[in-house]
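Review form for a predicted model. The reviewer records the input and the model, then writes brief findings.
Reviewer: anonymous (R2)
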Amino acid sequence: MYLLSNLNFSLAAGGLVLLVLMVGLYVDYFYYRSRYFNQWLRKFAWPIIIVTTFGGVAVSLTYSEYFGFVPCSLCWLQRIALYPQIILVAIAFRIKENVFFPLYTIALSLFGFGVATYQYIYQLIPTEALHNGALPCLVDGSSDCATKVIDEFGFVTFPLLSAIVFAFLIVMYLNLRRSN
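Model under review:
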């Protein structure tokens, strides 16, 4: 359990750092038209995207396969949005394609972001209200979508980290497309 609690804390802290970086990238992209981070992102966009997608898949598989947490239905939907991106990123990086590739991965990331945001809001609802049918969950009986595997700092949960990763990937894909 010591390893799991340290991993939970590290992921939560890293997720908050990624959130701050993501907000800065969004402000730069939409408000300043990529004036400040564009040169830096041209050099490091591909490695950052590869590490982020691979890291997201590695973390989700570590929690399910090594620690034995059964993913709920909403977690599976987020995995469906993230896992294909590794293959798409590898192919696009190999052929140096950054015009149409970001469009497909932005669509996948928007879907994953929506599901992660829905699950995060679902987890914020008190347990009493959930059992009264306040919000439906796609529960198939194997795992409950309201279960918090990570609960650090009082608000950082797995769906929040997932939403941060998807939003970060979206801004990275937008910058990759703009730098073409």
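Findings: The chain has a mean pLDDT of 86.
Further findings: The chain has one domain: 2-178.
Recommendation: see findings above.
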